[in-house]
């Protein structure tokens, strides 16, 4: 029997049977927000979903539907951006954990394609999940970003990524028909000294909505980085499960 399942296309009996064998799940979380003139608004959702599926294939778990609105405070007020409040997002993660616990799930990997989501997820784990539900939560953006940044042909903007070479390459591998490379252009907005130390956000600094250089992106890089992200995330997930005594939930290497 398979060590992973896509919950979106499964039936309730199939989910129940899978949870009995492998009581672990992977929840991709993304965001619906501006990604410059060349990438679609659901870029983070598509990347999170692709990374979650790649991670599951290399490890174990049921892949849940992507949570497609995130904590996107930095882009508030920008056309095309939807965001939950910090407290709302915490409550949503708590409610999902409660639901999964009711299924008999013992661990869930909240795998993000959007850099701000792990903040409210971390606080939801600490304040609303740990000690309240019999479920462990692994939290973070997909792994392997350090390796991807080292392989980039462009320099990063303030050591961050948004609509630049990495995200554009991943989208060229995942959904090339949605990428408008004829509109792609490099953009490196100035970084004031107070950035990261005040309320100043990327949304206030943005010019085109791009932070970096998407013009050097390619589908070949995207496919390689999708494999890197999936492999590194799978390694982290399997290690987490082993430390929680759930190594027998595995079955893939």
Automatic annotation (TrEMBL):
Molecular functions per Gene Ontology: hydrolase activity, acting on carbon-nitrogen (but not peptide) bonds, in linear amides; metal ion binding
GO biological process, one term: riboflavin biosynthetic process
Keyword flag Iron-sulfur: no
Cofactor annotation: Zn(2+)
InterPro entries per the UniProt record, alphabetical: Creatininase-like_sf, Creatininase/forma_Hydrolase
Keywords recorded for this protein, A-Z: Hydrolase, Metal-binding, Zinc
Protein name: Creatininase
Source organism (scientific name): Oceanicola granulosus (strain ATCC BAA-861 / DSM 15982 / KCTC 12143 / HTCC2516)
